[in-house]
Design goal:
Strand content: 15-25%
CATH architecture: 3-Layer(aba) Sandwich
Helix content: 40-55%
Distance between the termini: 57 Å
CATH superfamily: NagB/RpiA/CoA transferase-like
Strand order of the largest sheet: 1-10-7-4-2-3
CATH topology: Rossmann fold
CATH class: Alpha Beta
Largest sheet: 6 strands, parallel
Number of helices: 8
Length: 242
Amino acid sequence: MKTTAITNCGCFFAITRIIRNFAYHFTTHTMNIKETRNARLGATMVKNLERRHFEAHYCPTRQEAIELINTLIADGSSVTWGGSMTIRDMGLLDSLRRRPSLMLLDREGLTDREEIEALYREAFACDVFLTSANAISEDGVLVNIDGNGNRVAAITWGPRRVIHVIGMNKVAQDVKAALKRARSTAAPTNATRFDIKTPCQTDGACHNCNSPQCICNYIHLLRNSNGANRHVVVLVGEELGY
């Protein structure tokens, strides 16, 4: 009986090792396939964006993106950003805060509405404005929705350079799909994050509402970059933001 128990125990651990090894190799293989797909699509999108007069880059990881963006922002630059979970959660803002040569217009910690709006206006005179996008089409059209309008206003005009940092999870096949993603995925998620009273915050679905707290007041399509590479797009081969 004792020998049988030991044998059974050995078989159990052997099977467990086989399952773990299979799961590891399956996960690794799946990740490699996804990384390859993102890299290939990213290269195609860089070309599409360049045809639209953007400066465009593809970075496989967020760390590589942070390093690249730091090289794009010269010492002494004034820098600010729109509300973006992407640039916050990837560690970009922390990286910029460690550069004493930069003049950061940082709204973190501000609660007074007048102070926040004053900072929004100062953003138009900045050297660099950082943001993401709610979606981007494969052919290079950036889609954003906004409640207050400060973010899409700065994207449109003002700051000398606008750097968009976009995870590959936000890529949609075409503009129609990108609009759908922005309104049906990004908007309900952000409404939940801010805990605002909109129908999409209640059930997670877009109702094309006219709620007083609607965060889809401005729907912005950026088809081409105006000026000499004023807009920079950094695509990142990871899931970032909503």
